[in-house]
Write a structure and sequence with these properties.
Elements (H helix, E strand, L loop, with lengths): L1 H96 L2 E8 L7 E5 L4 E8 L20 E7 L7 E8 L9 E8 L8 E7 L2 H6 L3 H11 L2 E5 L2 E13 L5 E13 L12 E9 L3 E8 L4 H47 L1
Parallel strand pairs: 9-11, 9-12
Antiparallel strand pairs: 1-12, 2-5, 2-7, 3-6, 4-5, 6-11, 7-8, 9-10
Length: 351
């Protein structure tokens, strides 16, 4: 009986030990599995954190790069605006220094009758007539006095370029009606002279009426000689003078008048004997070339209002560029602050 009890108790003890070994082995297996799961979770968390950090870093790099490019564009625009302002001011100053000549033509029906002053010397006026539409009978009785159908007046004045020298001029009213082709034909005669060349000087001035209305005709002729050029026509020829008028606006806003002339010469066939040819005959015709007065003036092409408008636009662009640059800098600072906050929050979560 005793042996049977001891054998039974020994069997129970061995069974309990085997159960404890099995239980301990199961616990070890479970602990190993739990440790592996924890390690796997930690590795996964580390991988997720690294991917998040890399994505955040990539976005920050892109935003910073975009901001730098934007600031560079703003700086480029500002430099272009500054250059444009400098170029505009420079062009405006150059155009002020170098105005452009403008030529225009004014059509007229009639001119103001010009004055023609002849410095005859020893010569004598034989005939003077107004004709229309080129209906001119030039020589009727050469060398003899003919019809003088012209307004004329003799005036004596002091030479403006030679002191104490008197000059005598015969002033005649010039042609006026350009549409009817009005012309003035004059014939002069000069007796035997000791000079080598036979010629008569003449002066064209703008208005014969102003000459008649002038209270001091001698002073008027002195001023006309200072303002206009003196021309010459020779004896033994028919000189045909075609006049044109040029008005020039000076820098001081005063207007100057200039006569331009085109002259044609035709030789007179003198049929006199040799002894009589010592006397010289002069034939001259004055006519307007066309009904157009040429007006010349200097024009400043630089418009101050356009320049001011361009400069206002340039300065507005500079102001806007500076404002955009300021806003972009503020935006970059905010982005950096947000990135730092996110990094600290993610680091706190990971820890």
């Amino acid at each position: 009986m005793i042996r049977r009890e001891t054998a039974g108790s020994y069997r129970e003890l061995t069974n309990d030990q085997t159960e404890e070994r099995r239980y301990s082995s199961d616990l070890a297996v479970e602990n190993d599995a739990e440790e592996e799961c924890v390690n796997n979770e930690v590795l996964e968390d580390n991988n997720v954190g690294s991917t998040i950090l890399s994505s955040i870093f990539g976005k920050a790099c892109l935003k910073n790069t975009f901001s730098v490019i934007l600031i560079f564009i703003y700086l480029l625009l500002m430099s272009v605006a500054v250059f444009l302002a400098y170029q505009t001011i420079t062009d405006y100053r150059e155009k002020l220094k170098h105005p452009v000549m403008s030529v225009s033509f004014q059509e007229v029906q009639k001119y103001d009758a010009p004055g023609i002053a002849f410095y005859l010397g020893e010569a004598k006026l034989l005939s003077c007539q107004h004709h229309f539409h080129d209906r001119v009978q030039f020589v009727v009785n050469p060398g003899h006095s003919g019809e003088i159908d012209c307004n004329n007046e003799h005036v004596t004045y002091m030479d403006p370029y030679r002191n104490h020298t008197l000059k005598s001029a015969l002033v005649i009213r010039g042609p006026q009606d350009v549409r009817k082709k009005e012309l003035v034909f004059l014939q002069f005669h000069l007796n035997e002279t000791e000079e080598d060349f036979s010629a008569i000087d003449y002066l064209l001035f703008s208005s014969f009426e102003e000459f008649l209305e002038s209270p001091d005709k001698a002073q008027f002729m002195q001023e006309s000689e200072r303002s206009y050029s003196i021309w010459t026509f020779s004896g033994g020829f028919r000189t045909w003078v075609k006049m044109s008028l040029v008005k020039t606006m000076e820098k001081d806003r005063s207007e100057s008048i200039e006569f331009r002339q085109e002259s044609t010469l035709v030789r007179y066939n003198d049929r006199r004997r040799g002894s009589d040819q010592s006397d010289q005959w002069f034939f001259v015709v004055f006519e307007w070339k066309d009904p157009f007065i040429q007006e010349v003036r200097d024009i400043i092409t630089a418009n101050q209002w356009n320049t001011i408008a361009i400069l206002c636009g340039v300065f507005l662009a500079l102001f806007k560029a500076a404002e955009f640059a300021k806003l972009s800098i503020k935006w970059m600072i905010k982005i950096k602050q947000r990135q730092q906050k996110r990094k600290t929050q993610e680091l706190d979560q990971m820890s």
